[in-house]
Design goal:
single chain, flat, 18% strand, alpha+beta, 421 residues
Length: 421
């Protein structure tokens, strides 16, 4: 009688997982439609929340990805992501820079925009889409190669660009026009409603809405604005410019010139990010020329991943930072690369962390250390229960590594895997 023994041999993609805890004092970084901090009910209590859209927006526009573009510019062509509904306007500007007649440029740009997404001809806008200057420059270059020089006659330009786009579709065979030379599009992805010439890009990135590990009450800040030169009305009518009057009156004003209130909150936030490295690599290969080697593509991916991780660790949304100033570098970081299923640690905080009394004098321990302990206990239990199904993690912020060392090691691991993929 034959016997059967199941052996688990996963052929899944390699994924990078990032877990973080950040501590913010009074803040309102991500507001709802009424100006209050966004909320989440989880584990039966109210938490404060920062949406994934808000987090990704800051990363896209932050200093770290700007540094990535600058550093990669010397060795590879890299263009920043442009998320806009004014593709026709940008493309027309590039054509005019290329010495094309302004009327012809407008006609060509509108025809190209129609192929990218639903086009509103009245105000020359497309739907909001992600593209890059590199992609738009490639469109111009390909059209010239396939359809010849750009005509000067506006009546001919419409037919010229339509025929050129038809030829472009056949020639490219969906290989390019996927956010050419723009690594950020390959990471964040894009949706296209018209896919004849411009392909959508599946994002390898997953970002969870960050939330506090504990219950959070929304608090109210009452504040006033003071007019330093608030004068007595009668004296203003008599001698408003007399220096002696001004000097005397600046010490006589009272009350507020404006009164306002705003909501804020504070707490320890859990963050989770996941990147499918195989999908990122596949996306990048389709966005760069065929002659680019796997090592070159792997280098771009690993560099992008490193700067993305640093952005997650060190940057935060800018909402209300001028008045509340609550930035923080992550207090605790755990990350790893492996074939395991992606797993966020939300269940570690489904039961909210409670600040326990430390001594008889009622001093409290706060939430941060218990949040770190809660993650470590969750990870140990889940790893034992799911051996081989979860990715093993390395920690920083607790003595094993510094954050920067861990990012370097992870980026190098990413390159070594992709360069041999």
């Amino acid at each position: 009688m034959s016997t059967f023994s199941f052996e688990f041999k996963p052929q899944t993609h390699h994924r990078l997982e990032l877990h973080m805890l950040k501590c913010h004092s009074a803040n309102n970084m991500n507001r709802d439609d009424l100006g209050r901090p966004k909320e989440l009910y989880f584990g039966g209590v109210r938490r404060q929340r920062i949406s994934s859209q808000c987090l990704k927006s800051r990363i896209k526009n932050g200093e770290m990805l700007a540094s990535f573009r600058q550093n990669m510019a010397d060795t590879n062509q890299v263009f920043p992501l442009i998320r806009t509904s004014r593709v026709a306007e940008i493309l027309a500007g590039l054509l005019v820079e290329d010495k094309v007649n302004e009327n012809v440029a407008t006609i060509i740009a509108k025809e190209v925009a129609k192929k990218m997404a639903k086009f509103e001809d009245g105000d020359a806008k497309t739907q909001l889409i992600a593209t890059s200057k590199g992609e738009l420059l490639n469109i111009i270059s390909h059209l010239k190669e396939l359809a010849g020089d750009i005509p000067d006659d506006p009546d001919v330009a419409g037919k010229w660009v339509k025929n050129g786009l038809d030829d472009l579709k056949k020639e490219l065979n969906s290989r390019v026009l996927r956010g050419d030379l723009c690594p950020e599009i390959q990471l964040f992805g894009r949706m296209m409603t018209n896919q004849d010439n411009f392909a959508p890009v599946d994002s390898p990135l997953q970002v969870m809405h960050a939330f506090t590990t504990h219950e959070v009450p929304i608090q109210k800040d009452y504040w006033t604005g003071e007019d330093d030169l608030r004068l007595n009305f009668d004296e203003m009518l008599i001698k408003p410019t007399d220096p002696k009057v001004i000097e005397k009156l600046t010490f006589r004003h009272s009350g507020a010139s404006m009164i306002e209130s705003r909501r804020f909150s504070s707490g320890v936030y859990y963050h989770y990010h996941c990147i499918d490295l195989d999908l990122l690599f596949q996306n990048m290969k389709k966005a760069y020329p065929k002659e680019s080697s796997d090592q070159q593509i792997a280098e771009i991916c690993a560099e992008l991943v490193g700067y993305y991780l640093l952005s997650c660790i060190g940057e935060q949304p800018t909402g209300n930072q001028t008045g509340l100033a609550s930035p923080d570098i992550a207090e605790f970081v755990a990350m790893g690369i492996g074939k395991g299923f992606p797993v966020c640690a939300a269940s570690a905080y489904e039961k909210p962390i409670v600040s326990e009394k430390k001594t008889k004098d009622s001093e409290k321990e706060g939430y941060l250390q218990d949040s770190i302990k809660g993650f470590e206990e969750w990870y140990k239990k889940r790893l034992q229960a799911n051996n081989g199904l979860m990715t093993e993690l390395k920690f920083s912020g607790t003595g094993e590594f510094s954050h920067l060392d861990l990012v370097k090691k992870t980026s190098e691991q990413c390159y070594n895997y992709l360069a041999g993929a």
